[in-house]
Amino acid sequence: MPDGDFAVNAKYIPLDQLTRAEEIFLQAKEIWIPMDESEFYISYSTYPADAKLCILEWESSDPAVATMKEDTLVKVGVGDTTVTATLTGTRGEKTETCLVHIYDPKTENVGKITSFRPAEDSLEVNVGQYRQIQLVFQPEVCSANWGISYESEDESVAFVDNLGVVTGVSAGSTTIRIQHFETGIEEKVQVTVSEAVNYSGEWVKGRWYNKDGTQTYKGIGSWSRDSRGWKFGDTLGWSAKNCWQAIDGKWYYFDPEGYMEKNAYRKGLYLTGNGAWDGKEAAAVWKKDGKGWWYRLPEGTCLKNTWMKIDGKWYYFKADGYLAQSEFIRGWWIGKNGVQSDPVRCGWHKTARGWWYGVSGGWYAKSRTCRIDGTLYAFDQNGYLIEE
To answer: Which of 165, 239, 281, 333 could pair with 233 in a Cys bridge, judged by C-beta atoms 3.0 to 4.6 Å apart?
Structure first.
């Protein structure tokens, strides 16, 4: 440095004006490291790449196996520990974990990579979004010294870093080439980049987007089906219950047991045969006059000659559109409030003494008058139909 005076120009920038890192990716979900080296650097990437402020904390779940000195793992003993990196951004905390196996190479044989493949052959990402390519190695237990390189055939569409993190640059498609230096094996992943869409509070292609448009939740959502119907849940154990959910651009409602409702109304909105809301914002409403209740649809008509599930309860609407009340319809009892709630179905039965109505071995009508499918019938004290 030359002698004499010199000046340094510095500009103070408040922390809240610095661009913060919002996403973090670790080199792998699981690694094997030999004990013969005292320290091991955990490779990671943070995004956006031009962020000036990165607030990052590291933690090892078992200090008896290893501790963390910033991003360097300091080995203590043989065993397993989970390394957690927590990044604090303007949208909250984002965590990534890596299961680390520290082994003694003198007593445990951990081989080198013989082959690998991408966990997914194709990847979809939006412009400005980040997705990491996950690899599956053979043998499953292999050295952490992988020597893997990534290259995008068209960086104007998507860029990929040395940890396989793909950044969507512009709409289009490209191929990511993945090569293992030692074996020379090469694999490919097709990447499709779409224009950014401002998702908010919804599931899109199995991923949950927060109300602010961020995608931080790690659970992957999917549909499942059993003999009773369809459900929607994720890999972390959550399932949709007693709520509306926006899934791939459509709204669905799930009952308290988690089953998707279909051919039904919720809050006046109709759920079609495939379970999706029909998109009509005008809602159906209950109406009443001197004759009874009916359910008016948005187009001005009403339900007739049909059962309908409305807000989780079953109702029957007669030919004139009025709600059935205090009567039997097709064997089902409809209460005074119009709700079909009895799980047992009744029917007509005949013996040598005559006709009776009820359930074999259970309840039957006696000493009363019942309206059955629109007609009044009287039954004597023994339960037999009084025929004129």
So the answer is: 239
First and final C-alpha spacing in the chain? 122
Burial class from Cβ neighbours inside 10 Å (0-12, 13-18, 19+) for residue 194 reads middle
Q: Which range, 46-60, 246-260, 357-371, is most confident?
A: 246-260
Radius of gyration of the chain (CA): 33
pLDDT of residue 187: 95
- Name which residue leads in pLDDT, 128 or 272: 272
- Asked which of 111-120, 253-262, 299-308 is least confident by mean pLDDT, the reply is 111-120
Instruction: List C-alpha distances in Å: 308 to 51, 185, 207, 284, 330.
Output: 56, 60, 33, 12, 14
Among residues 100, 90, 8, which one has the least CA distance to residue 59?
100
CA–CA separation, 42 and 83 (whole Å): 9
Task: Using alpha carbons, select from 132, 97, 129 the residue that is nearest to residue 196.
Answer: 129
Residue 16 backbone dihedrals phi, psi, to 5 degrees: -70, -5
What is the reported pLDDT for 10? 52
Q: What is the average pLDDT value for the chain, to the nearest integer?
A: 90
3-state secondary structure 39-68: EEECCEEEECCCCCECEEEEEECCCCCEEE
Nearest-angstrom CA–CA distance, 108 and 139: 14
Task: Give the separation between CA 130 and CA 145, rounded to whole angstroms.
Answer: 24
In angstroms, the Cα distances linking 136 to 15, 28, 83, 142 are 40, 10, 20, 11
What is the reported pLDDT for 201? 93
Q: Which residue bears the tokens 């154990």?
A: 237
Spatial CB neighbours of 227, under 8 Å, sequence gap ≥ 6 = none
Q: How far is 41 from 63, CA to CA, in rounded Å?
A: 16
The 3-state DSSP class for residue 243 equals strand
The DSSP line for 190-206 is EEEEE------SEEETT
Q: Which residue has the tokens 């209460």?
A: 335
pTM of the model: 0.57
**Identity of the residue numbered 158:** A
